[in-house]
Amino acid sequence: MKNKKEIFWLIAMILISIIVTIFVLGNSGFTLEDVKHKEIVGINISGKDFWISKTLFLNFFVTSFFFIVYLIKMITWKFTNNLVCIVFILSNIALIRFLNSVKFLGNFNFESHSNNFLTFENPIVFIQILLVIVSILTAIFTIKNNKKL
């Protein structure tokens, strides 16, 4: 019964993501036109303007949305629901991949005193390392708790 509920949650999350995509991008959200024209969104944080493409912003929103919702669900289920843990790990991997694409696209420039990319001075690399650790711990806790059942 709980897996049927989780499938409904997953479908609801996908529908919310589609609705947000339609709201932000309009009807062109599901075509390559937005990618070709590179439409941008302006974000003002502490008096500084940051410009980011709409598709990159939506990728970040959708992956973060799945990550946060399934993190909360996984903690409330105490790692006992396999489907929740699998979706969380997949959203975690998607967030890591998104941060990796942002890092190599060069959309965010962080000043670093070192040429070594794997330093903790770069916040994206630090966040990726934390996400990998969270994925590993989630897998370990899920296996450990399901052996008890």
Task: Briefly characterize the structure.
The protein has helices at residues 2-25, 33-37, 54-77, 82-105, 123-148, and strands at residues 40-45, 48-53. The chain has 149 residues and is mainly alpha-helical.
Summary tags:
two-stranded antiparallel ribbon, 2 strands, 5 helices, mainly alpha, 149 residues, single chain
Write the layout of secondary structure elements.
Blueprint: H1 2-25, H2 33-37, E1 40-45, E2 48-53, H3 54-77, H4 82-105, H5 123-148
Antiparallel strand pairs: 1-2
Helix pairs in contact: 1-3, 3-4, 4-5
Describe the structure.
The protein has a two-stranded antiparallel ribbon with strand order 1-2. The protein is flat, with a radius of gyration of 18 Å. Helix 4 (82-105) runs antiparallel to helix 5. The protein is built from 5 helices and 2 strands; from the N terminus they run ααββααα. It has one domain (2-148). The chain is mainly alpha-helical and 149 residues long.
Order of helices and strands, N to C?
HHEEHHH
Low-confidence stretches: 106-110
Let me know the average pLDDT: 76
Instruction: Report the helical percentage.
Output: 55-70%
Radius of gyration, in angstroms, nearest whole number: 18 Å
Alpha-beta content class: mainly alpha
Give the overall silhouette.
Answer: flat
Number of helices: 5
Count of strand segments:
2
Q: Give the number of domains.
A: 1
